[in-house]
Amino acid sequence: MKAEKAFTVIGRKLEKEYKSLGFKYFKTIQFLRKRTKRFDYYILFSPHFEYIPDTYIELQVTLMINDRTLLKTNINANGEVFRVDLWEMDGHYNIANETLINGVFIDLRNKIENYLLPQIKKLEST
């Protein structure tokens, strides 16, 4: 599998899983986003530029929340209210084939549910 296809496959799998929560995958920028009046919730993909098709395609993932109202009121502000760089926890993911993608999907789903979704619930309940 080539890198562009691998990113699309994992992105679409995550979009399908979290579409009911409002997440949408953006293929050209390689991230998923959920937007509310105040916040942008992101699942960001950071590709590495050294690929070996069908053997090694590196994926780095960041879970992030930006406060858009803060950015509108102060252009010098950092709007990040939450950020977890998953590669700092477990290293990089290899998404070079369907089997690897399925394993990465399960791990990402667990991390999204443990780290990002509780933050979303907390922010949306205030």
Short account of what is shown:
This protein is α+β, with helices and mostly antiparallel strands and 126 residues long. Helices cover 43% and strands 28% of the residues. Strands 1, 2, 3, 4, 5 and 6 form a 6-stranded antiparallel beta sheet that branches.
Topology (elements, then pairings):
Layout lengths: L2 H16 L5 E3 L4 E5 L3 E9 L10 E10 H6 L6 E6 H5 L2 E2 L3 H27 L2
Antiparallel strand pairs: 1-2, 2-3, 3-4, 4-5, 4-6
Helix pairs in contact: 1-4
Structure description:
The protein has 126 residues and is α+β, with helices and mostly antiparallel strands. The protein has one domain. Helices cover 43% and strands 28% of the residues. The protein contains 4 helices and 6 strands. The chain has helices at residues 3-18, 68-73, 86-90, 98-124; strands at 24-26, 31-35, 39-47, 58-67, 80-85, 93-94. Strands 1, 2, 3, 4, 5 and 6 form a 6-stranded antiparallel β-sheet that branches. α1 (3-18) packs across α4. The mean pLDDT is 90.
